[in-house]
């Protein structure tokens, strides 16, 4: 897709040319050429798996530094609910929220608060759109992007409602403008994110024209800055939190679906599991499910690569935090009912196509199959592509050659050596 932003990048100087990343990438977006990996941007869905798997730390996520706060006169923090699961022995979310204000933010608007509004809207949408069942959550940008490029038949099943973070940004900016009288450009809405895909969703939003988020900080960067302020805030905790069990539950897998108050749902986490579910859904293997919640990261957002805590431990921490909270602390208003739906259609982006049209694609696919019969079928990755078929597709696209396969190269060298030996023996 032309102009699409990617938040996962390669640090070439650290890359050792190993093939760990090409084997783990769910969309085969990485190749190793000339001893260095490179990311095929249009294939990348910013899941962050390559960041997680790279032993040399050669993959990195793009996000803003804390200094971005200096660009605005009035700063509002949008903490993701997964942030609360990063801290040991946390008994009150207000300690974190107060610490954020002590850190330099003028106000805090919980993403979990907006999540409760989205949950209400989703319940209504699911009830009124039975013809679109199962409806697929759009809270995870990686999943939305994956469906956009690989599962076009499922686009109509996407939930056309703002992700909680985008709704939180709209509400936070509106609130700040009313309270301060400042113009929007002087107000910075800063999201504290668990994953790089959220950065991509801000820079290249899907379903909406523009995000109201002005900057994205990584949880792992904010975490170390917050700890000393949390100790100070223990003595003067402000009552800031407005979300309940439903909103906080969105931080881990199953929380969004559980908020729909129905048992007729499926929740899956981990990118491999997500792809299996989408494959089965496209093959119509699910019958009469109302809702499907999919999270690219294991454990849900608490498993994002920009977090610091083990996702399953963080999930337990969130469960404990929710225990004594009300079911919900924020409720839907009539204004939000009208403003929380997508304004743009989600187009299919056939980035994996080989030919320029159907006839050309059939011809090139035949060539791919022909090439695959020449390769050993080991999927060893030594050629720099994750599979023999991927190498064949690269050759057809014109970005690789048959000699990249070491087995074909070895056979060629042996034939050449035999031929030279015969020529030499005739002299």
Q: In words, what does this structure look like?
A:
It is a single chain. It contains 16 helices and eleven strands. With 427 residues, it is an alpha/beta fold. α3 packs across α8 (219-233), α4 packs across α6 and α14 packs across α15. The radius of gyration is 25 Å and the shape is elongated. The relative contact order is 0.15. The model has no long low-confidence stretch (mean pLDDT 93).
Layout of helices and strands, plus pairs?
Blueprint: E1 8-10, H1 20-24, E2 30-33, E3 36-39, H2 49-53, E4 59-61, E5 74-79, H3 93-103, E6 107-108, H4 111-128, E7 135-136, H5 141-150, H6 164-180, E8 187-193, H7 196-203, E9 215-218, H8 219-233, H9 245-249, H10 255-258, E10 265-269, H11 271-282, E11 291-295, H12 311-322, H13 334-339, H14 358-374, H15 388-397, H16 406-425
Parallel strand pairs: 5-6, 5-8, 7-11, 8-9, 10-11
Antiparallel strand pairs: 1-4, 2-3
Structural class: alpha/beta
Helix content: 40-55%
Quaternary structure classification: single chain
Distance between the termini: 59 Å
- The overall strand count is 11
Q: Can you tell me the residue ranges where pLDDT is under 50 for at least 5 consecutive residues?
A: none
Strand order of the largest sheet: 6-5-8-9
Return the string of H and E elements.
EHEEHEEHEHEHHEHEHHHEHEHHHHH
Q: State the shape.
A: elongated
Radius of gyration: 25 Å
| Major sheet size, sense and barrel closure | 4 strands, parallel
